[in-house]
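It would be a great kindness if you could assist me with a short task in structural biology. The matter concerns a single protein, recorded as an amino acid sequence and a row of backbone structure tokens. Could you please explain, in whatever detail you think fit, how the structure tokens follow from the sequence? Thank you for your consideration; the sequence and its tokens are set out here:
___
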Amino acid sequence: MHLSDFDYELPPELIAQEPLPERDASRLLVLNKSSGAISHHTFRELPQFLRAGDCLVQNDTRVIPARLLGTRKGSNKQVEILLTRPLGNAADPSGYEAMARPARKLHPGAVVQIGTSGVEIEIVESIDPRRRIVRFPPGLDIASFLEQEGHVPLPPYIDRKDAPKDKERYQTVYAEMAGAVAAPTAGLHFTPALISELENQGVFVARITLHVGPGTFLPVTSENPSEHTMDREFYRISSSAAYAIGRTRRSGGRIVAVGTTVVRTLETAARQEDGLWGVTADEGWTEAFIYPPYTFRVVDALITNFHLPRSTLLMLVSAFAGREHILAAYQEAVAQRYRFYSYGDAMLIQ
């Protein structure tokens, strides 16, 4: 297996730069993972492909306005701080891990003044050439500060500044648990009405949390993908979600994951009981990197967006449906002028 095995040609104009006015108006390519058969639909037709007794698992993480713009104290040079995760140290709640740009100018001891507030963030430690440990002033209400000064951390392939609409559209309608720096984009297509329709036809809806980190966008640089290391991300599975998944498995229903973040979470927490695979209520950190060949233990069907060439996400869906089937589906999506990536269209693989 080589990195080049997961490449495809994508015309740049197919990279979605804006969300559609209506979430569920996006297109839906349905792929049969056994035969490779493809059909074309809209996302609001999803209920016809799910059935009573299935369990739809969604990621309820909420994107925080984690992108901070400012200047390096003592100069007028513009800098950017992207918060990636709190250090989790109760004794020092002001500490965060962050990505800095330009990192070469932000050494330990440097101070960044943010926006109109002038709040000063100190660079405490260098983790690697791009990542830093930063510290906010003691006593600062960080959540309120981010709402005031932070920007939506749009993916790098969206070639525009964040806009007011992104604060709402770059969140799922069920986003609740703040902590992600990227949206679980397969969930962006759902509306409250569509979720209610699924529930009314007997589909169980369960929610887990995985706080999506910057590793979502980090490229695979090794020609041998198995040498790539994933960025760790925090996840939590509640007892009610674990129960719903177990009940579905025992009754013969399917586990339908909404997005690769759900897949990685469920496969990380997979446990076997009485010969059936499910999950247990759990929380922790996952560095799961799923690529072919891989035997899935929990997930039966997957709703996902179209992913970047040579990316870990493309490798995951290739493991799920077969590389040849996925690349053929992507070729068809390009031919049919589907919209790609975060604000783009969706696939259902079953």
User: Anything to note?
Assistant: The chain has a mean pLDDT of 94.
